[in-house]
Amino acid sequence: MRAPRFNPLHLAGWLFADMLLVLALVAMGDRGDPLAAEAVAKPGSSASAKPKPSKAPKPKGPRSVVNKPVKVSIDAAPGDKSHIKQRLRAVTAPYRGRQAAFVLTFGRHADPGAGGAYAHEVNTLLGKARPDMFKGATTRDFWKGGSSSGHADIEIYFYTY
Question: Global pTM?
Fold first, then answer.
């Protein structure tokens, strides 16, 4: 039996695919840098012109949450709501104007139930201490072992803008 003879038409499909790939690469490599073209096309830009400070661009898209939390602590007696609010206002003052996404509060106490209850009390007063900062923020109450009561460690995760 004789082997079939090589027919060049068998390579036509491969040749077409290879040519299409080459043309696609040439078309992609032929495109210029759009940002460089914008800079050149701006009227009035010259080497002697003084640069004007540009406005900060407005963020686009959904907000995200900063990965690193802001950690603050308060010391106030459980049940003393006015003192807790006062301490919360004081420790969050440097972050005025930002909005919290979620807050983790760790109430320190020897008893887990009392520590969690104190964390819950602090979290309920966050929105009263700073309504603009904690509006819609998700809060979680945790217990942190320790001998002192009336102490809370707070981790605040802010939105990026």
Answer: 0.62
